[in-house]
Structures are given as C-alpha cells and as structure tokens.
Amino acid sequence: MAKAFFRLQKFLRRTQFLLFFLTAAYLMAGSLLLLQRTRLVIQQGSRGTSANQALLVPDGMAGVGTVDPRMLQNPRPGPRLLVGMDALQEPALDQQHSPRWLMSRNSELRQLRRRWFHRFISDQEPMQIAGFKARKHTAEHKGTYMGCFSDDSRERTLKGAVFYDLRKMTVSHCQEACAERAYTYAGLAYGAECYCGNRLPATASKPEECNSECKGEKGSLCGGVDRLSVYRVEELRAGARRRRNVIYRGCFRAPENLTDTFPASLIQPNLTVEMCSEFCSKKEFPLAVIRGRECHCGYPTGRFPLHDGADGQLCSGVHDEGKYCLVYQTPVQDTRCTDRKFLTTKSKVFVALSSFPGAGNTWARHLIEHATGYYTGSYYFDGALYNKGFKGEKDHWRSRRTICVKTHESGKTEIEMFDSAILLIRNPYKSLMAEFNRKYAGHLGYAADRTWKSKEWPDFVNSYASWWASHVLDWLKYGKRLLIIHYEDLKQSLIPKLKEMVEFLNMTVTEDRLLCVENNREGNFKRSGAKQKDFEPFTQEMKDLINRYILTVDEALRGRNFSGLPREYVPR
Q: Source organism's superkingdom (predicted)?
C-alpha cells in the first residue's frame, strides 16, 4: 500500500511540473505571436515609398527630388492626384495604390499611434510618481505661514504668477516657484493651485476654511475652495535662483497721456532699469516703462499695444524730446487672462480642434483657453497636460462643457461626430520632428541623437508622413464647417489669427484680453530653444516622399477654395 501511494505521489509531482512547463510555454508562444503581429503592422506601415507608400501625385511629379516652388502657387491638376474629394474623379488604379488602400492603411496607423500614445503615458506615470516619492521625503516647509485668506477668480488675492500641478503640488514647490520670481507671498488653493503676489488683504479668513490637502504631500494643507494658504517667502529670495531676469521689450512711442495709460508711476533722479523694475514688480505689473526720470507701470493695452517698435536710438534721450520710452518685461505674470472655467451650459455646437500630432495643438489650446476664459477638451487623456492646468483633459470629450475638443483623429466616422472644426496645419518637416521628440522625450524634451540615427526615425517618417497628408484630406472631405489655420501664420500674426479662431467659436473677447494672451503667448509646453543637430535628419528619399505629400495637400486646399499652403512649406 505504501509503495502504491509513493508511486502515485511521484506521478502527480511529475504531472504538476509538466502542466507548469506547458503553461509557461503557451504564454511565451502567445507573447511571441503578439510581438510578431505588432512588428508586421509596423513593417507594413514602414515599407519603401515607391510602391506602397507615396500618395499619388500629378503626372510628371513622381520621383521628383526637388520641387519647383512655383508648383505651390499654381499646381497642375492631373488625373493621378489622390485627394478624396467628391468633385474629383477617381481613376481606375492598381488596388495597392488606391484611395481605399490609403484610408485602410492609415486607419491601421491611427490604431498603432493610439497604442504608442497610451504606452508612452503609462510608462511616464510610474516614473513621475517615483520621482515625486523621492522628493517628498526631502521637502521642507520654508517661509512664514501668514494664514488663510479668501480668494475670488474674478479678483485674485495674489495677482502675480499662477501655476498648476494637479497631482504633485506641495507647499515647498509653490514657495520656491514664487521666490524664484521675486515675489513676497506664495498662496495655495484647491490643493493644487499656486498663486504669487506682493500684497495681502488686511483681514484673514477662518483657519479651518483652508482644509484641502496638497495633491502631492499628504498631511499638508494647500488652501481650500476660494481660500488661500499664504506663506511669506521673502527670506527665500536671497538664495533663490532667478529663473528669468527683466526682459527688454524695445523702444516705443509714448502714449499722449502716460498718467491715464499707466496706473502706477514713480519719478526718481538717476533712475535705473533695476529700480523701475523692482518698483513695478512690487506693484504687481508686468511692464516697466522708462521715460527719462519717470518710471511707469502697467499692462499692454489698446493705447499701448507694443506692436510698432521704434528705432532704439530714438530712446537715447538726445533727440527724443520725451516722445519715446523704453519698455521692459518684469518677472510679474500678466494675469488678466489666466482665469478659466467650464461652460455653464452645454455647447450647442460641437467643435473640434484638429491637427496632425506635433502641429502645435497644445499651444493653440493654451491660446484659446486664455482668450475665451473656457477650458478646451481632449479626445484623449494626457496626464502631463492635466497636471499643468488643462483641466478639460479629465472631462469626457463629449460632455460639451468645453469650448472645443482636441483630436488627431481622421476618418469619416470620427470627423462627422463634430459640427465644425478648426483645422491646424503645420509644415510636415517640423511636425514630424516635433512628434518624434514628444514620442521619445515627452512634451518638453528632445530625442537623443542616437535615436534619430537609429531605424526608429526612418520607420517613423515612412509611417507618419502619409498620415500628415491623409489627415488634412479626410477633414477637407468629411468636415462640415472648417476654419483652416496654419501654425506659421498663427505664430507670426497671433492677434489677427486668434481673433479668427475666437469668432469661429462664436465668442466675443476684449482687446485687452487678447493683448494679455499675446503677453503670455508661450505657455508651459514650449521646448526651450531650438536644439540644433550636426546632421540632416531627412534623407533625400524622405524629402521626395514628403514633398509629394505637400503638393497633394496644397492642391486639395485650393480645390476647396482655401488658400494654399504657406510659402514656408516649399520643399527643401
């Protein structure tokens, strides 16, 4: 009996090991199959341009390396142009080169990009959380606690700079940010918002009304609803690294009545730029204006818009006769346009803010939000954007509580969900590089040189270049009401183009608010400087491919009675 039991036990142990081994082999085989399928999709979207890739172009243009700039001004229509417009005849084509093939292929690419996007976000979050935990234990509360004060979005208690960090805000983070900008006080509200300023009201609120825990620091209070936990940080300013100095804006013709134009002024013998800037900073004004011994503080306004600069020699004081003045930007932020909220009633018109990735969609959202005072939504959820104040990221994209909705989608179904759209277009060379940087280094980083020189970059261009073209073509075909905005035009003529966008959204804003947006035009998601490369990232084959797409999109725009692509798009 004992021997039989021992044999049974030995058999079961072997069976258990065998089952474990088979299960592991099954899982490994499934993983390899999944990886192989993903690789196949990437390879299908990354294959050579001549047979599988290029959009069809006007006759005579295939294989062109350098395109005549005149072709952009007066492109010749041809029977092989792939536009996807109802007004154009689609000739019988090889199935591999047909519009249906392009649409199907780019649908696969959109799905692939979604997986890339969500994988990138999920990879970033643990890194951010780990970094925060490492800093959390070293954070110390500095400065002097002044108390709990009331705050109103229409009339801020602290009128200086404003910062958001909806997941990682701490008392120290806010204090250091305000100290770096030479402010005296730092105030925290809603557990995630930081406000800076130099003046406090005479009376404080009840201490228990500041009851919101800091999003990034358990056990610490960061204000409350319409309440600020305020710290005095002046003692930190001496050791704080000044993130930005006073910026020279230029020489401008002085308004006729400086006293009426500027709310604060100072007359001082031997006046210096530092003296005037310090005076205006304490008064919480973003502009310091110097005319002789006079120092004036204020904002850009209709009377003084800072649009028409004069020759700097006119401000030398020799021949100006008091007609010209020097203008400097102080460390104080212009906060006349920083208040934002959700729509109080659901929008009747569902508006998309559509662009190819890397075309400046986040920057356009920053401009729209500050111009209108309302949040923009997103078809996706980007935690990095949400943390920095884009609260519409977390709102459901179909809630209609936002002024417009960011999307990179194309295709008939996705487009026809919207009643109208602002279509933002950027030079594909710039867009591809910007999106590649974001994909491999986040919103503010730059991809490493070794990544640019690896096979990832040519695969990316081959996959994404056709998407740049098909994105515009789809919106031209299926969009119900479109406003075309070129990124380069918006950058060069911000106020006129922003007015077009605001009017398209059926909003009315004041000139002073638009001037405030112009004064805060950069936003929080602009890469610092232009990182120059010591090599050309685009090969001749890549240029030939992208140039054909540029011509195709240019002709499609003209076919719909829109202006063609800017001259800056002329292929290099």
A: Eukaryota
Of 522 and 364, more confident: 364
Q: Give the residue-averaged pLDDT of 211-225.
A: 89
Question: Rounded to whole angstroms, how far apart are CA atoms 280 and 274?
Answer: 10
More confident residue, 292 or 21: 292
Residue 464: the pLDDT is 93
- Percent of the chain having pLDDT more than 70? 71
Residue 463: HSE in the Cβ half-sphere, 13 Å Cα cutoff: 25
pLDDT tens for 513-530 read 999 999 888 876 666 655
Type of residue found at 473: L
Q: Which residue has the higher pLDDT, 15 or 457?
A: 457
Say which DSSP state 254 is in. Answer: P
Which one-letter DSSP state was computed for residue 96?
Answer: G
Q: What burial class does residue 147 get, using C-beta atoms within 10 Å of its C-beta: 0-12 exposed, 13-18 middle, 19+ buried?
A: middle
Spatial separation of the C-alpha atoms in residues 490 and 513, rounded to whole Å:
17
Helix (H) or strand (E) holding 393: none
**DSSP-assigned letter for residue 384:** H
CATH class of the domain comprising 339-525+537-569: alpha beta
Q: Is the pLDDT of residue 39 over 50?
A: no
HSE (side-chain half, CA atoms, 13 Å) at 225: 0
CA dihedral 139, 140, 144, 146 (to 10 degrees): 50
Token pair 């602002």: residue: 422
Side chain identity at residue 224, one-letter code: G
Q: At 119, list the tokens.
A: 């994988």
Exposed, middle or buried: residue 560 (CB in 10 Å: 0-12, 13-18, 19+)? middle
DSSP state of 561: T
Is residue 324 within 8 A of residue 252, CB to CB? The reply is yes
- Give this prediction's pTM: 0.70
| In contact, 537 and 465? CB cutoff 8 Å | no
Q: Are 225 and 212 in contact (CB under 8 A)?
A: yes
pLDDT score of 21 more than 70: no
Find all residues with CB under 8 Å of 336, minimum gap 6, and list them: 299, 512, 513, 516
Torsion of CA 510, 513, 515, 520, to 10 degrees: -160
Q: What angle do CA 397, 398, 403 make, to 5 degrees?
A: 70
CA dist., res. 193 & res. 166, Å (int): 7
pLDDT of residue 186: 92
Report the SS3 class of residue 441: helix
CA distance 222 to 183: 18
